[in-house]
Amino acid sequence: MQTIRTKQFSTLMIAMVMAIAVSGCTSQSAGVKPETLSIEKQGSFAVGGTIVQTPGTFDPIKQGAYSPMGVDSTGQTLHGDHATVFYQIPPKAHHLPLVFWHGHGESMRTWQTTPDGREGFQNIFLKKGYATYLVDQPRRGLSGKSTQPAAISAAADEQLWFGIFRLGAWPDYYPNVQFSKDPEALNQFYRQMTPNTGPYDASLNIAAMSKLFDKMGDGILVTHSQSGGPGWKTAIKDSRVKAVVSYEPGGDFIFPEGQGPDNITLKGRSFPLPKVPMAEFKKLTEIPIVIYYGDNIPESESNNPGQEQWRVFLNIAEQFRDVVNANGGDVTLVHLPDIGVYGNTHFPMSDLNNEKIADLLSQWLKDKHLQ
User: Fold this and answer.
1) Helix and strand counts by DSSP (H, E) for the chain
2) Does a structural domain hold residue 361?
3) Where is the signal peptide (predicted)?
4) Residue 46, Ramachandran bin (φ over 0: left; ψ between -120 and 50: alpha; else beta)
5) How far is CA 83 from CA 88, 120, 174, 183, in A?
6) How far is CA 217 from CA 227, 241, 248, 308, in A?
7) Residue 174, domain extent
8) Is 330 exposed, middle or buried (0-12, 13-18, 19+ CB in 10 A)?
């Protein structure tokens, strides 16, 4: 009798294992994403930057003791103004990696996880088979070593950014907003913001990003907000940038000399737009570009400054698209509400629907044969 029961138990266990295996195959075939994140290679490095060399000869004996009054810099060096890069490569990665570049007051944390603790674009696109390179630009975050001094303020300004980043009009969230309304999510969002540790210098950022592509090889540049303008110049500078994805770039779009608007006007103030020779601008017509803007951007002038600046920037983006495409380019501009995607803030990669936002990009990459 014991033998019979053992056989019955064994048969039952085999049947259960087979059922689980079949269920797993069915789930994957139905399009359910696997939970396992596989990484074949990862690491970090600095790229770009400058070296300051002071005159004289360093004396290791005389200057070997650190003085609380400061260090005598005679004959010493200062390495700074570099970018820091953290990369992960999954098995059988697509041939073009994604390079993620943060915006103003942010760091690579923008892409790592969401303020409410869900997976960010880093993991989402690793699971889609893309190598990811996350960047802290010079004088920001992990790249804080600057060759130029700067005063770091301790200004209380977070409610201002709540409005500029279109979470709402403080203290109220927009009714349809995709940002988590959990107070801890807002706490984490504020704490991911980080200051410049030296004067902001777009040329340093462009040079460092170009060095990254020189080191890494061909790839796709993904920018956000403040990095949008330098992103266009990086693509012009380095032919290894094979496509640009830009989430809510600021108003500093590039236009060719003699075409497009000369200035951008915001609340009565006018700012010149960068112009480049047509030979340089043409480089932007040789790669596919997609630009995304979220929700709660008004169609007509608004007295809400957090909304008005994005209305103006979206208008400039439309003109940029038209000029690039008129010169033979391939720019897709997506205003998310126009395709039925509502409630996105200035941080669509962090919003509650960030997987849907990622799927839109994934489909665009597939359509443009950029995998």
Assistant:
1) 10, 16
2) yes
3) 1-30
4) beta
5) 17, 21, 36, 32
6) 20, 9, 26, 39
7) 41-47+81-367
8) middle
Q: Is residue 72 part of a domain?
A: no
Dmax over Cα atoms in the chain, in whole Å? 94
- CA 225 vs. chain centroid, Å, equals 8
Comparison of pLDDT for 263 and 71, the residue scoring more:
263
Q: Identify the CA nearest to 211 among candidates 199, 223, 219.
A: 219
What is the tens place of the pLDDT at every residue in 286-338?
999 999 999 999 999 999 999 999 999 999 999 999 999 999 999 999 999 99
Distance of CA 34 to the CA centre of its chain: 24
Measured CA to CA, the distance from residue 213 to residue 219 in angstroms comes to 7
Q: Are 143 and 46 in contact (CB under 8 A)?
A: yes
**pLDDT for residue 202:** 97
pLDDT band at 28 (very low <50, low <70, confident <90, very high): very low
In a domain, residue 143? The reply is yes
Distance CA 157, CA 234 (A): 31
Burial 225-238 (b: 16+ CB within 10 A, else e): bbbbbbbbbbbbbb
Strands (E), the chain: 41-47, 50-53, 77-80, 83-89, 98-101, 132-136, 168-169, 172-173, 219-224, 241-247, 255-256, 263-266, 269-272, 275-276, 288-293, 330-335
Residue 150 has pLDDT above 90, yes or no: yes
User: pLDDT tens for residues 232-243?
Assistant: 999 999 999 999
pLDDT tens per residue, range 213-260: 999 999 999 999 999 999 999 999 999 999 999 999 999 999 999 999
Residue 2 forms part of a structural domain: no
Q: Please give the span between the terminal C-alpha atoms of the chain, in angstroms, as a whole number.
A: 60
Q: Going by C-beta distance under 8 Å and a sequence separation of 6 or more, which residues neighbour residue 248?
A: 224, 225, 228, 292, 293, 294, 310, 313, 346, 348
User: What is the pLDDT at residue 63?
Assistant: 65
CATH of the domain at 281: 3.40.50.1820
